[in-house]
Write a structure and sequence with these properties.
13 helices, Aspartate Aminotransferase, domain 2
Length: 383
């Protein structure tokens, strides 16, 4: 009775099962995977939600690309970053997850393929499966820094490939797309008629500036390209559910794709009216809530770098990758850490690391909990 697109195992993995048991048995599990900014003691300005009840919120004015004023607010945000984005190139949706789904509907027939980074966040797998699209992986190689293996990516393009997904910066490795990478990817995209999809939800969380780094990929690309953003990470508002797609590339191709994307989004119209009316008031929260998140991430990472943990280099994002000593396997270590120390981390296999010697932690938790959790992790590493 179930669709074949529901490619999932209903059984819980061992870590999820153990976590449920621990939470029933003990008062506190130190969750070093927490990625919800509303649950880690970040201060939000009083009355911010009143923007959702502002003038016009009670009226319904369906617009497939999003309300003009809301799209202008997104364009204004990019203008503050020094990037020219036309409001007509913006389409609003509920989230980055939905943005991916809309773009796969736009670009792919059932059985077509897109390529995404490995290691990478596992969200793409179920979204692609639900759209009837094959998800291939191209490797990020580590040689002291993470880099896109463009040659390996090229070898994995086939006749059904339709797009390459970039995560800028990547989750969890914190790797930004470099200008040399973009040039090579554009050449491949032009040769094979591929679009680029750039997930930029963590783009504002860079640890330091770099002249090698691409800014907004859609604004710099010479091939059809889509940059994704949203309030969830930028302003710490996952509950408001506003995301956007910025289309770029050659104007004729870009406008044709936007018309198709508008047609797809018109079937859903999931970005709520109140959120769109409030967008111009909500986006400035990046200067307060977003800044507080950035400070938390920087402070926790600075402490982590001094802790003695083997932390892999990163350029930005909310996560850190820790390398385990030889002889420790990621899943076994994560299970032991939770079972004996009440600390939750993600084993690297969740993100398709090639080797079973990495664990991933979020840099968002409240500092006292973060310090204690990492201290317990290091004690277990030491044996």
């Amino acid at each position: 009775m179930l669709s074949s697109r529901l490619e999932f195992d209903a059984a819980e993995n061992d870590l999820t099962t153990l976590l449920a048991e621990k939470r029933r048995a003990v008062a506190t599990v130190l969750d070093l995977t927490e990625s919800n900014p509303t649950r880690v003691g970040i201060a939000y300005p009083e009355g911010w939600a009143s923007a959702l009840a502002g003038p016009g919120s009670s009226a319904y004015d369906p617009s497939p690309r999003g309300l003009p004023a809301a799209r202008a607010a997104v364009a204004g945000y990019y203008a503050e970053r020094g990037v020219l984005v036309e409001p007509e190139s913006v389409l609003l949706c509920a989230s980055t997850s939905e943005a991916y789904a809309l773009l796969l509907k736009l670009l792919c027939d059932p059985g077509d393929a897109v390529l995404g980074p490995q290691p990478g966040y596992p969200l793409l797998d179920p979204i692609a499966a639900l759209e009837g699209v094959r998800l291939g992986r191209y490797p990020l190689r580590f040689d002291g820094a993470w880099r896109i293996d463009v040659g390996a990516l090229a070898a994995r393009i086939d006749a059904r490939s339709r797009a390459v997904v970039l995560v800028h910066p990547n989750n969890p490795t914190g790797t930004f797309v470099k200008r040399a990478d973009l040039e090579a990817l554009q050449e491949l995209a032009a040769r094979h008629a591929l679009a680029l999809i750039s997930d930029e939800v963590f783009a504002e969380y860079a640890f330091a500036p770099s002249p090698e780094r691409v800014g907004v990929v859609a604004a710099e690309a010479s091939v059809p390209c889509f940059s994704l953003g949203g309030l969830s990470k930028l302003c710490g508002l996952p509950q408001v559910k506003v995301g956007w797609i910025v289309a770029g590339g050659p104007p004729v191709a870009r406008d044709r794709l936007l018309r198709g994307l508008e047609h797809v989004n018109d079937a859903y119209l999931s970005c709520t009216g109140p959120a769109q009316h409030a967008l111009a008031e909500l986006l400035p929260l990046r200067h307060t809530v977003g800044a507080a998140i950035a400070a938390r991430v920087r402070d926790n990472r600075a402490w982590l770098l001094c802790s003695g943990a083997d932390v892999l280099p990163a350029e930005g994002g909310w996560y850190a990758v820790l390398r385990l000593p030889p002889g420790l396997a990621d899943e076994t270590f994560a299970l032991d850490l939770l079972a004996h120390d009440e600390v939750l981390v993600h084993p690297g296999y969740f993100y398709d690391f090639d080797e079973p010697c990495f664990v991933v932690v979020s840099l968002l938790p409240e500092p006292t909990s973060f310090h204690e959790g990492i201290s317990r992790l290091l004690a277990r590493v030491a044996g």
